From TrEMBL:
Binding site for NAD(+): D50, G107, S108, T109, I110, D111, T129, L130, A131, S132, S138, L140, Y144
Name of the molecule in the record: Glycerol dehydrogenase
Cofactor(s) of this protein: Zn(2+)
Start and end residues of each Alcohol dehydrogenase iron-type/glycerol dehydrogenase GldA domain: 21-167
Cofactor note: Binds 1 zinc ion per subunit.
Lineage, broadest ranks: Bacteria, Bacillati, Actinomycetota, Actinomycetes, Micrococcales
Alphabetical UniProt keywords: Metal-binding, NAD, Oxidoreductase, Zinc
Similarity-based family: Belongs to the iron-containing alcohol dehydrogenase family.
Length: 389
């Protein structure tokens, strides 16, 4: 495992803060206990899950709620956490008289539920069925347009009251989603160390604590030691100690690390990539992986660190070139659109220790093709199968 450069010590005098979910629950079979953990939060829950997710979770949730003496009202969900979706869920909370709303499914479902719970003034719980993002633990939601482009962050005064992850459910899902979660989580330390160098404000509402930065680093270390073993296990729908560790790193450690350690260029570049239609079929973590590699290029990170990152993420199946995300080095207009969105006012790229201008970012993105293919060729690594033309 490479040892990335450490951030410089942060200055004194600023307010430091760490935020976290009220309770985190993880393990094989945890979904069968969801009623037990929801019951202390409210007695009239509204569950939000799309039809596909409800098909493999509904029976377990229904039985668990019955055992806890809870009524079950379930609403469906669409594709993206849009403003309209949030308002519709909030309206349903009012109609049903619910005092807690539970999101079961992927990151968009959970983000919409968090935003709706805040809007309706009730408590909210996250029950992710994938370990594909660190969204379940955070006190924010990413809101998209109906077409899937990033629109805004919404921030809330508290984190979810409950995050519950059933690792067998995660292991039963297509392995691409666990890999995507690794792509999202690997960015956590790369971004947090940049934020620590500048003492920029994090999404927790202050500058980073030592704890937030350390958790970001721990996420990185856990993934380097366990990600490949976990991915192989999940290909066969197995839950092993490596899977448990990676699920925790993807969900809890990355969630705490990004929110209280800080975001920088990688997630801003992800947001920029959503501004072009070429990338809309990709997962969040696949786009973030392009952002992380681009951040390393912008930083002038040591060559050994970049090589190790490309080799690991290629072996996992994550994209590292523009071609693999539907773009190309000659798509200058599209890349300029990406760069402008990524460097917009308020974006997290401004937490970097130096200014990032649109031409700088376009050139960094264009450099990925030759950089990654050269590293792969020298290591005799083919492009990830999911992204080959």
């Amino acid at each position: 495992m490479p040892t990335p450069s450490e951030p410089a010590p942060a200055g004194a005098g600023a307010v430091r803060t760490l935020i976290a979910p009220l309770r985190y629950v993880q393990g094989r079979g945890a979904l069968a206990r969801v009623g037990e953990f929801v019951a202390p939060l409210g007695r009239t829950p509204l569950v939000v899950a799309d039809d596909a997710v409800w098909g493999f979770t509904g029976g377990t949730v229904r039985d668990s709620f019955a055992a806890a003496g809870l009524p079950l009202v379930r609403d469906g969900f669409g594709t993206y956490a849009t403003a309209a979706a949030v308002e519709a869920i909030a309206a349903r909370i009012g109609e049903t008289g619910s005092d807690v709303v539970v999101g079961v499914g992927g990151g968009s479902t959970i983000d919409a539920v968090k935003a709706a719970g805040h809007l309706a003034g009730v408590r909210w719980a996250s029950v992710p069925t994938l370990a594909s993002t660190d969204a379940p633990c955070s006190a924010l939601s990413v809101i998209y347009t109906e077409e899937g482009a990033f629109e805004e962050y919404r921030f809330f005064p508290r984190n979810p009251d409950l995050v519950l992850v059933d690792t067998q459910v995660v292991a039963n899902a297509p392995v691409r989603f666990l890999v995507a979660g690794v792509g999202d989580a690997l960015a956590t330390w790369v971004e947090a160390r940049a934020v620590a160098r500048t003492d920029s404000e994090t999404m927790a509402g202050g500058v980073p604590t030592l704890t937030g930065t350390a958790l970001a680093r721990l996420s990185w270390d856990v993934l380097w030691e366990n990600a490949e073993s976990a991915v192989e296990a999940v290909r066969h729908h197995l839950v092993t100690p490596a899977v448990e560790k990676v699920v925790e790193a993807n969900t809890l450690l990355s969630g705490l690390g990004f929110e209280s350690g800080g975001l920088a260029a990688a997630h801003a570049i992800h947001n920029g990539l959503t501004a072009v239609p070429h990338t809309h079929g990709l997962t969040h973590g696949e786009k973030v992986n392009i952002g992380t590699l681009t951040q390393l290029v912008l930083e002038g990170a040591p060559r050994a660190e970049i090589v190790a990152f490309v080799e690991l993420t290629t072996r996992l199946g994550l994209p590292n070139t523009l071609t693999e995300v539907g773009l190309g080095v000659d798509d200058v207009d599209a890349l300029t659109t990406v760069a402008r969105a990524a460097t917009a006012e308020g974006e997290t790229i401004h937490a970097m220790p130096f200014a990032v201008r649109v031409p700088d970012l376009v050139d960094a993105l264009r450099s990925l093709e030759t950089l990654s293919t050269t590293i792969r060729d020298r290591a005799a690594l083919p492009a990830p199968a999911a992204h080959r033309a």
